[in-house]
Design brief:
The protein has 234 residues and is an alpha+beta fold. It has 2 domains: 118 residues; 106 residues, Transferase(Phosphotransferase), domain 1 (Orthogonal Bundle), CATH 1.10.510. A hairpin with an 8-residue loop joins strand 3 and strand 4. Helix 5 runs parallel beside helix 7.
C-alpha cells in the first residue's frame, strides 16, 4: 500500500518533505521546514514531545540505546516511520484505539533524515506509568483492560517491539490506547503463540522494572489481572 492510499498528500522543497492527511491540510502552514515543531511539553520519553496548538502532539524522533549519543535524531531511512503510519492506519481500521497520525516531516540531513511525527492530541491523557506512580483503586482494572488491548493488537497481526507501561496511554475516560508504534511490525496473520508470549513477557518485565525502581505502584494481583484481560476472562 502506498502512503497516498492512506489518505496522505505531500509537499516538498527538495530538502524537507511533509506528508499530511488531506483533512488536516492546515497543518502544512504550521510546520516549519526545519527545527522544532510546536512548543515543548513536560512529557518525558525517548523522543522529545511537543504540542502543536490544542489539537496535535509532535514526536521528534531520536534513537535510543547505546548509539543515541552518536546518531541522535538522524535516521538513515524513512522506512520505519512509513511502516508506523501504515500500522497505525491498520489498527484504526480494525477498531483498535491508537492516536491518529495526521502528518510526518522528513528533513534531509546527510547522511540521513530528521523525522517528526504529528498525531491528534488527546486532552487530559496520561500514560499508564505516570498514572500508576501512586496507588490507584482502579489499577487492577486498567491492567486488565491493557491485556484486552494488547490481545486485540496481537490478533490484528501487530507486534509492538517496545511494549511497556509508557506506551499505554489513558484517555480522559481512562480507556487505554496503544502508542509509539515506530518499533512495531505487522504480519498478514494473527501473531503466533511464541510471538505473543515474548511480547507479553516484555510488557510484564517493564512492569516489574518500573515498580522495582519506585516509578509505579502495582496492585498485588497485577499480573493475574493483566493475564485475565489478555485471555478474555472477566
Amino acid at each position: 500500500m502506498n502512503i497516498e492510499d492512506l489518505g496522505f498528500s505531500s509537499v516538498s522543497n527538495g530538502i524537507t518533505t511533509v506528508y499530511y492527511k488531506e483533512a488536516c491540510a492546515e497543518l502544512v502552514e504550521l510546520i516549519p521546514v526545519a527545527g522544532p515543531i510546536g512548543e515543548a511539553s513536560d512529557v518525558s520519553g525517548r523522543s522529545p514531545i511537543h504540542y502543536l496548538g490544542e489539537d496535535y502532539v509532535v514526536r521528534h524522533l531520536t534513537h535510543g540505546g547505546l548509539f543515541r549519543h552518536i546518531t541522535g535524531d538522524r535516521f538513515l531511512s524513512t522506512q520505519r516511520t512509513l511502516r508506523e503510519m501504515f500500522i497505525s492506519h491498520q489498527l484504526i481500521a480494525a477498531g483498535i484505539p491508537t492516536p491518529e497520525i495526521v502528518a510526518v516531516r522528513f528533513v534531509r540531513r546527510e547522511p540521513g533524515y530528521a523525522i517528526a511525527v504529528i498525531s491528534r492530541r488527546l486532552q487530559d491523557a496520561v500514560d499508564l506509568l505516570t498514572y500508576l506512580k501512586e496507588p490507584r483503586p482502579d489499577a487492577g482494572q486498567l491492567l486488565r483492560l491493557s491485556g484486552v488491548l494488547i490481545r486485540r493488537m496481537h490478533e490484528a497481526g501487530v507486534l509492538h517491539a517496545d511494549l511497556h507501561l509508557k506506551n499505554i496511554l489513558l484517555d480522559k475516560n481512562r480507556a487505554p490506547l496503544i502508542i509509539d508504534l515506530d518499533k512495531s511490525f505487522i504480519f498478514p496473520e494473527p501473531l503466533s503463540a511464541a510471538q505473543r508470549a515474548l511480547n507479553i513477557r516484555r510488557f510484564e518485565r517493564s512492569c516489574r522494572k518500573w515498580a522495582g525502581k519506585g516509578r509505579c505502584v502495582l496492585p498485588e494481583n497485577w499480573q493475574i489481572a493483566f493475564r485475565a484481560g489478555y485471555a478474555g476472562l472477566p
